[in-house]
Every structure is written in structure tokens, then in C-alpha cells.
Design brief:
This protein is an alpha/beta fold. It contains eleven helices and nine strands. It has a single domain, classed as 2-enoyl-CoA Hydratase, Chain A, domain 1. Helix content is 42%, strand content 13%. Strand 2, helix 1 and strand 3 form a beta-alpha-beta unit. It is globular, with a radius of gyration of 19 Å.
């Protein structure tokens, strides 16, 4: 096996492939380079007859805090000459909405391996699973979270719309709207209550829970695992799931043109990204939704 592993780690043991997002100093923020490595690892696992399932997890304190917004990091696309930049700057000084859609679709193609591959996958979610982190986790076949994990998509407040849309198929339209229309987050325990994840467990039991499930699937013929995964995913496709994923890229590009998004980008350019994010999120207090009971808040917007 030959895999580039600058941003992930990959290991196969006892019928499972463990793929670990490995940028702990950045809370496993996603870049195109990382997604390429992830895509390669997923197809390697899918091709390996010794692998029955894949565990996707994050190193350090978080599963993934989202996309890496470092300027210029994700500028150079694939699909063209090595080192050539067609869709962002370069010979095109003013990227168009089609350029934006093209780049969003590029990232989506890399992530969709989780949905398309034959082998089942489990997302092992701890710490922050935000924005792009949810795009990965919710494409997995099952998500097991720590009770105290933080799950949500805060960028819907001012940056666009998720470029993958599996929220609808996991927690239904009302909770998908509740969370995406506000950017509020839920804990892993609350996510399990609404069906956004399969289940949650105490943090110190998370790894054992995921490994235990992987061990049970390791007892099953991989071809049978494939048959049973794929018929369910085909059902999701019949409900429009795959078409919806394609539309989400164009919808996110549309969101990027909203006045609120343009204002945030201007603010980030002038004050810096960290300051702009703090200014945005401070208006939402603790940024949490409450699944059970009333959302009583104090004067700062924090749940009581």
C-alpha cells in the first residue's frame, strides 16, 4: 500500500481500517490536501479484502472543527496541470459563481467516498464536530459520539449553507431547520435524542464502543456488509439523497453571495478571521440549542 499520510494516519487491524484526521494543532481543520489523503485512504480500505469496516476519527481534542479558512490554502484545484490555478486568481482575477461551485464540488467528490464505498464506516466523534466536520461525520454510515461532543454548523450564520446535506436524512426536516437556520449546536447526547447520530456514550467509553461495533462487523462477510449497506444507501438515493448532495454545492455558492456573507468576509479581511468569528458568535451567547425543555436564556444569550 502506498498512501500519502501528511494529514491523516491509516492502519488496518482485526478487520477494520482506522483513518485518523491528524492535524491536532488545527483541531483537524479540513483542507483539500487532507481530503485528498482521506479519499485515497477510503478507497484503499474499500479495495482491501481484509477490511470489513472503516473507523473515521480525529487526533487530539476534536473530531474536526471545520474547514481550514487559511487564505490561499485551498486555492489550487486538481483536474488540471500540476501547479496551475485556473479557478481562483491566476489568469482569472475575478472568480465567478461557477468557479465557486466547481471548487465546492471538488471537495464534495472527495468526501462522497464515505457514501459511495462498499464498506461501512463509523464516525467516532469527540470534542468539536463543527461545519466541515459534520460534512464528514454525517456521510458515514453510523455516528457514535461522546456525550459531551459539540455538533453543529455555526457558519450558516454568515458564510453560506452546508456543502453536504445529510442532516435531513438523519434528524428530519424540523431539527435540520432548527439547527441550520441558527447555527446553534447540540451535545452528542442531544444529537442522539434527535437521531442526528446513532448514539452517544460517556467520553471514556467512546473508543471501546466504536471498536466493539467494528468487531461485530468483522465477523460478517464483507460482501454481505456491502450488500446491506448499499441497499440502504440506494434507498436514500431514491429519496433524492444523491441529487440533493449535488444541489448543495450550488446552494452554498448562492449563499456565498448573500449580503451577510459578503459583510462577514469584509469584516474578516479588516479585523482578522478570529476577531470576525468572535464578533459573530458573541451575539448568540453559548450558541447552543436545547433538545428537551424550554430554551430559557440569560441576558447574554446563554442557556439557563
Amino acid at each position: 500500500m502506498s498512501l500519502s499520510q501528511e494529514h491523516i494516519t491509516y492502519e488496518v487491524e482485526n478487520g477494520r481500517a482506522r483513518v485518523t484526521l491528524n492535524r491536532p494543532e488545527k483541531r483537524n481543520a479540513l483542507s483539500i490536501a487532507m481530503l485528498k489523503e482521506l479519499n485515497d485512504a477510503l478507497w484503499e480500505a474499500d479495495n482491501d479484502k481484509a477490511v470489513h469496516c472503516v473507523i473515521l476519527r480525529g487526533a487530539g481534542k476534536a473530531f474536526s472543527a471545520g474547514y481550514d479558512l487559511t487564505p490561499g490554502l485551498n486555492s489550487t484545484p486538481t483536474g488540471g496541470r500540476e501547479g496551475a490555478t485556473y479557478r481562483n486568481g491566476g489568469i482569472y482575477a475575478n472568480p465567478t459563481i461557477d468557479d465557486d461551485i466547481w471548487r465546492l464540488e471538488q471537495g464534495q467528490r472527495l468526501r462522497m467516498a464515505l457514501f459511495d464505498m462498499h464498506k461501512p464506516s463509523i464516525a467516532q466523534v469527540h470534542g468539536h464536530c463543527l461545519a466541515g466536520g459534520t460534512d464528514l461525520a454525517l456521510l458515514c454510515d453510523m455516528v457514535i459520539a461522546a456525550d459531551d461532543a459539540t455538533i453543529g454548523f455555526p457558519p450558516t450564520r454568515d458564510l453560506g449553507s452546508p456543502p453536504n446535506q445529510m442532516w435531513l436524512y438523519n434528524c428530519g426536516p424540523q431539527w435540520a431547520k432548527r439547527l441550520l437556520l441558527t447555527g446553534d449546536t447540540v451535545t452528542g447526547e442531544e444529537a442522539a435524542l434527535i437521531g442526528l447520530v446513532l448514539k452517544s456514550v460517556p467520553p471514556d467509553m467512546l473508543e471501546a464502543e466504536v471498536e466493539g461495533l467494528a468487531s461485530r462487523m468483522a465477523k460478517i462477510d464483507p460482501d454481505l456488509l456491502s450488500a446491506n449497506k448499499r441497499i440502504i444507501n440506494l434507498g436514500i438515493e431514491l429519496m433524492g439523497g444523491r441529487t440533493l448532495q449535488r444541489i448543495t454545492a450550488e446552494n452554498d455558492a448562492r449563499g456565498h453571495l448573500a449580503p451577510g456573507t459578503l459583510a462577514f468576509r469584509k469584516n474578516a479581511n479588516e479585523k482578522g478571521l478570529k476577531a470576525a468569528l468572535q464578533e459573530r458568535d458573541s451575539a448568540f451567547g453559548d450558541g447552543r440549542a436545547r433538545v428537551r425543555g424550554p430554551e430559557t436564556r440569560d441576558e447574554n444569550g446563554n442557556l439557563i
